[in-house]
Design brief:
The protein is α/β, with parallel strands linked by helices. It is built from 22 helices and seven strands. Strand 1 and strand 2 (about 275-280) form a beta hairpin.
Length: about 525
C-alpha cells in the first residue's frame, strides 16, 4: 500500500511540475501570424450553426458585417476548429482586451496539449513501465519546438494532442471493449478528422489494430460487431455535427479536403539551404521535410528513436510479435505512412515540418522502446548519459525561452540566418515591440517593416502586448518616414536582401533578438 501511495504521489508531483512550468512560461509568447485567421475560422463555423438553428442570429450578422463568412462559403473548410467551440467567447474578449485574450487562448491550447501528452504517457506506461513513461514524456515535453508551440499553435499541436488521445482511447478500447469506450473512441475519431483529414487515417489504423487483436484472440462475435457499428456510427454522426462544412454536400467536402491534402492551395516561397523554392515554379524539394525534421529535432531524440527502431526490427526478425509490438507498429505506421507519402509525392509543405507534428508520438514511442531496453539492462553509463542529456535539453528550453520555435539542434544550428527559416511567424516581434516601449520614452513613435509578412507580424504582435504600450505605437507603411524599422532575418533574406543591406549600412541598430546562435529579428533607428 505504501508503495502504491508513493507511486501515486510521485506521478502527481511529476505532472504538477510539468504543468506549473508550462503555465509559468505562457506570458512571453506572442500571437502567431495566423492566430486571428484561425479564430476567424472558428467564428465561420459559429455562423453556420447560428444560421442553421436560428439561434444567436444577431451575433452571426455581426460576424458577417466584419467580413467573416460562413464556413461553407470559405476556402478553409479543410481545417476544422471543433476543439475550440467552447472558446467562441474569445470574440468578446478580443474586442475588450486583446492582450488578455491572447493569454487565455494560449492557456487553452497548453491545457489541451497537456491532456494529449498525459494520454500518451498512460499508453507508454501500460506497454513498458512508469519509469520509461516518465523519461519518454520528458523527451516529448522538452523538445524545444514542441514545448514552444504547445503554448500557441492551435492547429498542428492540437492535431498531435488529438492523435495522442486516439492512441490512448484505442489502447483502452482493446483492453476493455465496452460500449462506452467504443463511443468515446468514435467521438475522438470525429474530432481528429474534423481538425485535419489525415486524422481519419490515424483513427482507422488504430481501429484496424483493435480488430486484428480481437481476431487473433478469437473474440470476434456479434457483440463485438455491434461495438464496431456503435463506434463507426458515433464517429460519423459526431463528425457531421462537428463539421458544418459538410452540410451542403458531404461528397464535395470530401473531394475538396482530399485535393487540398495532396496539393495544398498555399503558393508562396520557402527558404531552404540558402535557396528560394515555390510550389508552382521550382516545386518543393523532396528532401525538405526529412532534412528539416533532422535539423530541428534534438539529437538525443533522433539517436534513441534510431536505437528503438533497431530493437523493434530485432523483435520482428525473432518473430517475437506480441500485442504490444503490434500496437507500436500501428502507432509508427500512423506517422511514417503520411510522412513518407508527403516526401515521395513532394507535397506542398512550408514552415518546417509543423504540419506533421502529429508524427511525433510515433517517434517518442520508439524513444520509449530504447529507454525500456536500457532500463532493463541498467547500464550505469547509459543511464547517466540519458540523464545528462535531459538536463541539457531542459537547459536549452529555459535558455531559449520564449524563442524555442527557432531551435535547431547542436549539429545544424550555426549561421542559418540566410539559409533557413528561423522565425516564420514573427514571434520575436513581441519582444522587439516591448523593448521599444521601454527604450523610447516619448508619448508615441512610428514603426514600419519592409515586407508584407513582417507587416502582418507587427499587426499580430501589437495585439499581444499591453494596451498602454500598444497605444504609443503607430504603424506606418513607408519605413523611411518611421522612427524605427523592424526586420525579420528570415523575410529579409527571402524577399528584400538588398533593401535590408541598405538599412543595415545606413541606420543604427537598436537591438536584436537572438536564439540558439542565430539572429531572429532586428530593430534599426531610422536616420532622418
Amino acid at each position: 500500500m505504501k508503495k502504491l501511495l508513493y507511486i501515486w504521489h510521485s506521478k502527481r508531483i511529476f505532472w504538477s511540475i510539468l504543468f506549473i512550468l508550462g503555465m509559468c512560461t505562457i506570458l512571453p509568447y506572442g500571437a502567431h501570424l495566423d492566430q486571428q485567421s484561425e479564430q476567424d475560422i472558428l467564428f465561420s463555423n459559429v455562423i453556420a450553426y447560428c444560421e442553421k438553428t436560428g439561434v444567436m442570429l444577431p451575433f452571426s450578422n455581426q460576424l458577417r458585417a466584419e467580413g467573416i463568412s460562413s464556413i461553407a462559403e470559405s476556402i478553409e473548410i479543410d481545417h476544422g476548429m471543433s476543439v475550440f467551440y467552447p472558446m467562441v467567447w474569445i470574440y468578446a474578449l478580443n474586442a475588450k482586451t486583446p492582450y488578455i485574450a491572447n493569454i487565455v487562448w494560449h492557456i487553452y491550447i497548453f491545457c489541451f496539449s497537456m491532456i494529449g501528452i498525459i494520454c500518451f504517457y498512460k499508453v507508454i506506461e501500460s506497454i513498458f513501465s512508469s519509469g520509461t513513461a516518465k523519461l519518454a514524456t520528458l523527451f516529448f515535453f522538452f523538445t524545444p519546438r514542441i514545448f514552444a508551440e504547445m503554448h500557441y499553435n492551435n492547429k498542428d499541436i492540437v492535431l498531435m494532442a488529438l492523435a495522442c488521445m486516439v492512441y490512448y482511447s484505442g489502447w483502452k478500447l482493446e483492453k476493455e471493449t465496452t460500449l462506452r469506450n467504443a463511443v468515446i473512441f468514435g467521438i475522438l475519431g470525429a474530432f481528429i478528422t474534423n481538425m485535419k483529414i489525415v486524422g481519419v487515417f490515424i483513427w482507422g489504423v488504430l481501429g484496424l489494430w483493435i480488430l486484428l487483436e480481437k481476431i487473433l484472440k478469437k473474440q470476434f462475435n456479434v457483440k463485438l460487431l455491434n461495438m464496431m457499428l456503435a463506434c463507426i456510427g458515433s464517429m460519423a454522426i459526431f463528425f457531421i455535427l462537428l463539421t458544418p462544412a459538410t452540410w451542403n454536400g458531404l461528397r464535395d467536402y470530401i473531394l475538396y479536403v482530399l485535393e487540398n491534402a495532396k496539393n495544398f492551395r498555399w503558393n508562396d516561397y520557402i527558404l531552404f539551404n540558402g535557396k528560394m523554392y515555390c510550389k508552382t515554379t521550382t516545386g518543393i524539394p523532396r528532401k525538405y521535410l526529412p532534412v528539416i525534421f533532422l535539423m530541428t529535432t534534438p539529437v538525443g531524440v533522433i539517436l534513441l528513436a534510431s536505437l528503438g527502431t533497431i530493437f523493434l526490427l530485432g523483435q520482428i526478425c525473432k518473430l517475437n510479435i506480441d500485442m504490444k509490438i503490434r500496437y507500436i507498429i500501428a502507432v509508427i505506421a500512423c506517422g511514417i505512412v503520411p510522412f513518407g507519402y508527403a516526401i515521395v509525392s513532394a507535397a506542398t509543405v512550408y514552415n518546417g515540418w509543423r504540419h506533421f507534428y502529429f508524427i511525433y508520438p510515433s517517434v517518442i514511442i520508439l524513444v520509449a522502446l530504447a529507454l525500456s531496453y536500457f532500463e532493463e539492462k541498467n547500464i550505469r553509463v547509459v543511464n547517466w548519459s540519458i540523464t545528462a542529456y535531459l538536463i541539457i535539453l531542459f537547459a536549452e528550453v529555459i535558455a531559449g525561452h520564449p524563442k524555442q520555435y527557432a531551435y535547431y539542434n547542436e549539429v545544424a544550428r550555426f549561421h542559418l540566418e540566410n539559409k533557413f527559416e528561423i522565425d516564420y511567424w514573427d514571434m520575436s516581434f513581441k519582444q522587439l515591440l516591448e523593448y521599444l516601449t521601454e527604450y523610447d520614452t516619448r508619448a508615441a513613435f512610428k514603426i514600419a517593416a519592409i515586407d508584407n509578412p513582417s507587416k502582418w507580424g507587427i499587426d499580430a504582435q501589437l495585439l499581444a502586448i499591453r494596451g498602454k504600450k500598444r497605444c504609443r505605437i503607430e504603424v506606418v507603411n513607408d519605413w523611411e518616414s518611421a522612427d524605427y524599422v523592424i526586420l525579420n532575418a528570415t523575410y529579409a533574406a527571402m524577399y528584400c536582401p538588398n533593401e535590408y543591406q541598405l538599412i543595415q549600412s545606413q541606420n543604427e541598430l537598436v537591438t536584436k533578438v537572438n536564439a540558439y546562435g542565430n539572429d531572429l529579428s532586428y530593430v534599426y533607428k531610422v536616420e532622418q
